[in-house]
């Protein structure tokens, strides 16, 4: 009798504590994700003007304050677990601009590398180097119901609810970006990523690939980059990369796949000069001499890097004597 | 009868005179007002003309945004900096002033607010290798250039200058260095470079362009005239030189000459050693 009483009490206690809803602190819901980035408005408006005045003036005249208001309208004063991608429609319409052909770069699991390699639209224009992307890159935000302010304490993460402000933003941004891409499409994947270089459920797979415009794309090139000193878990023709290749071929695209694309590898190797994975880069014959024949092709930064390596070696050798 | 006529005529004449005088005064007053207004309009429209590109549009938003971005995401150790005040001090240094009359003292309040320490062994100076050095430091996080500090980050690629009359900022044009050296941009970078050199410690790196005809190291460049002189010999232990060459650029026999000039001006090497360096092919200090 006592046992069953205690049991029922225990069960009652367990069910009364609601694990699904977050606990409340000072009337504000406490979520598990980090809160809105401080000074969000200044950062975002500054980035907007920086983009249209300095990074990519070909975009033309845009009203950054208007775009910011449209951005806020998507999620301010609403339940932070009920924000849909379509809520950002006005924002998207105001900040849309063309993406030059052959400049689109899609990626998974190598955000920083992509940012470095694209070099603020100089080489490529990934989503983070578009006006839309610059609004959200590395930032976090959410609002709350019956409140016109941001929640700086915490925001719901994807596990707590999928329809949160940030998640929905990237969904609509990815869809839009894919629809605007044309010419040669580039995809950079991480061959050392756990779970596979091509996540079959992710922004790229679910929101970008399905929105490729077949009639505007000439071909697709995939680069599978391994971490320096990292495992070679996936590569062209294997594992999840093969799944992607098959998927794209079925859709009718002309596919090329390159393992450790040299241009990107050179960039990665800047931080690992003496690593064995970078030997292919530092042992090329042209590094032995400073003089280079002008007939040789290749990019400026690639050759300069080689000369730098040889130079640095001789400098270090002299210092150590 | 004639008396009455005379007095009425006198009265008429007086009235006429008064009317004419009033008219003249009114006309003169109106003319004066118009001329004055025009005159004022001209002075307020007087925008000085220069040869360089004008102030970047939306300068305030860009600078503020960059400041907040820097202290929030790039270098969160500086999160207590007051970006609004920093912008105000920066603006105060050049607004409504003649852009050929700017001094380092004008920027002192800004320097006091925005300077911050720099970790040792990470300073990378450059001369005539702007693009390359920034591509390098963006990817390799072992080094910091001036543009990776708050002062440099805020102003990189941006131009600005003031104008004596309203609105105080010149968006049309700004003086080039060749027109006057004491312009807001050049003085800003001199101030920031001085700070960067003074804060440098440990091993210091310099990236020079070995391909330009005038020589990779020029004593009148900012590097040659400001940064080198402000390196603190008590804090800096070693200077490493990276001499970079363009593809298909001039041959490398200039290298040694460059290094010789560099290390003698820094007094890093004694003359005999320096001469030996000149004679040795493909060897560097």
Automatic annotation (TrEMBL), chain A:
Signal peptide: 1-16
CDD domains: Rib_hydrolase
EC numbers: 3.2.2.6
InterPro entries in alphabetical order: ADP-ribosyl_cyclase
Taxonomic superkingdom: Eukaryota
Single Gene Ontology MF annotation: transferase activity
GO biological process: positive regulation of B cell proliferation; regulation of actin cytoskeleton organization; regulation of calcium-mediated signaling; regulation of cell-matrix adhesion; regulation of inflammatory response; regulation of neutrophil chemotaxis
UniProt keywords, alphabetically: Disulfide bond, Hydrolase, NAD, Signal, Transferase
GO CC terms: plasma membrane; uropod
Family statement: Belongs to the ADP-ribosyl cyclase family.
Protein name: ADP-ribosyl cyclase/cyclic ADP-ribose hydrolase
Organism for this UniProt entry: Terrapene triunguis
Gene encoding the protein: BST1
TrEMBL record, chain B:
Subunit structure: Homodimer.
Name used for this protein in its record: ADP-ribosyl cyclase/cyclic ADP-ribose hydrolase 1
EC code: 2.4.99.20, 3.2.2.6
The organism's taxonomic lineage, starting at the top: Eukaryota, Metazoa, Chordata, Craniata, Vertebrata
Primary location recorded for the protein, binned into one broad class: membrane
Coiled coil: none
Transmembrane segments: 15-37
GO cellular component terms given for this protein: cell surface; plasma membrane
SUPFAM superfamilies: N-(deoxy)ribosyltransferase-like (SSF52309)
Subcellular location per the Swiss-Prot or TrEMBL entry: Membrane
Gene name tied to this protein: CD38
């Amino acid at each position: 009798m006592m046992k069953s009483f205690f049991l029922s009490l225990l069960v009652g206690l367990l069910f009364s504590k609601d694990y699904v809803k977050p606990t409340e602190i000072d009337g504000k819901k406490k979520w598990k994700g980090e809160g809105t980035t401080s000074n969000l408005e200044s950062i975002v408006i500054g980035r907007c003007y920086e983009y249209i005045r300095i990074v990519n003036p070909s975009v033309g005249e845009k009203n950054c304050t208007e775009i910011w208001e449209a951005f806020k309208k998507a999620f301010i004063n609403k339940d932070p677990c009920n924000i849909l991608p379509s809520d950002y429609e006005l924002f998207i319409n105001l900040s849309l601009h063309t993406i030059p052909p052959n400049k689109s770069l899609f990626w998974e699991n190598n955000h920083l590398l992509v940012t470095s390699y694209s070099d603020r639209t100089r080489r490529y224009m990934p989503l983070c180097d578009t006006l839309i992307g610059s609004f959200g890159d590395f930032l976090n935000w959410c609002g709350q119901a019956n409140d016109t302010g941001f929640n700086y304490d915490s925001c719901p993460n994807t596990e707590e609810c999928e329809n949160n402000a940030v998640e929905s933003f990237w969904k609509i941004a990815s869809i839009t970006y894919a629809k605007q891409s044309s010419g040669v499409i580039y995809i950079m994947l991480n061959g050392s990523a756990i779970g596979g270089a091509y996540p079959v459920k992710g922004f790229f797979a679910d929101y970008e690939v399905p929105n490729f415009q077949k009639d505007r794309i000439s071909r697709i090139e995939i680069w599978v980059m391994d971490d320096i000193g990292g495992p070679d878990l996936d590569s062209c023709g294997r594992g999840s990369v093969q799944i992607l290749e098959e998927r794209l071929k079925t859709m009718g695209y002309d596919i090329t796949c390159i393992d450790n694309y040299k241009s990107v590898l050179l960039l990665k190797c800047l931080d690992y000069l003496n690593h064995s994975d970078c030997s292919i880069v530092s042992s090329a014959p042209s590094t032995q001499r400073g003089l280079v024949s002008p007939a040789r092709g290749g990019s400026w930064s690639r050759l300069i890097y080689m000369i730098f390596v040889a130079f640095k070696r001789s400098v270090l050798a002299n210092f150590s004597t | 009868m004639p008396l009455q006529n005379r007095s009425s005529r006198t009265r008429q004449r007086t009235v006429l005179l008064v009317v004419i005088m009033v008219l003249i005064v009114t006309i003169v007053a109106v003319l004066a007002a118009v001329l004055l207004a025009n005159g004022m309009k001209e002075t307020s429209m007087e925008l000085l003309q220069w040869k360089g590109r004008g102030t970047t549009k939306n300068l305030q938003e860009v600078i503020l945004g960059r400041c907040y971005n820097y202290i929030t995401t790039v270098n969160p150790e500086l999160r207590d900096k007051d970006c609004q005040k920093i912008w105000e001090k920066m603006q105060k240094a050049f607004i409504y002033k003649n852009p050929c009359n700017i001094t380092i003292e004008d920027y002192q309040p800004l320097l006091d607010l925005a300077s911050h320490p720099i970790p040792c062994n990470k300073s990378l100076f450059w001369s005539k290798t702007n693009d390359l050095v920034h591509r390098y430091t963006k990817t390799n996080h072992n080094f910091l250039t001036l543009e990776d500090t708050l002062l440099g980050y805020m102003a990189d690629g941006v131009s600005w200058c003031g104008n004596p009359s309203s609105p105080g900022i010149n968006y049309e044009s700004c003086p080039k260095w060749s027109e006057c050296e004491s312009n807001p941009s050049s003085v800003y970078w001199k101030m920031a470079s001085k700070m960067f050199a003074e804060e440098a410690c440990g091993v210091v790196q310099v990236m020079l362009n070995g391909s330009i005809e005038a020589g990779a190291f020029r004593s009148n460049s900012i590097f040659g005239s400001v940064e080198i002189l402000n390196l603190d010999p008590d804090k800096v232990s070693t200077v490493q030189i990276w001499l970079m060459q363009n593809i298909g650029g001039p041959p490398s026999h200039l290298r040694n000459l460059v290094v010789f000039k560099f290390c003698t001006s820094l007094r890093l090497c004694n003359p005999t050693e320096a001469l030996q360096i000149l004679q040795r092919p493909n060897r560097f200090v």
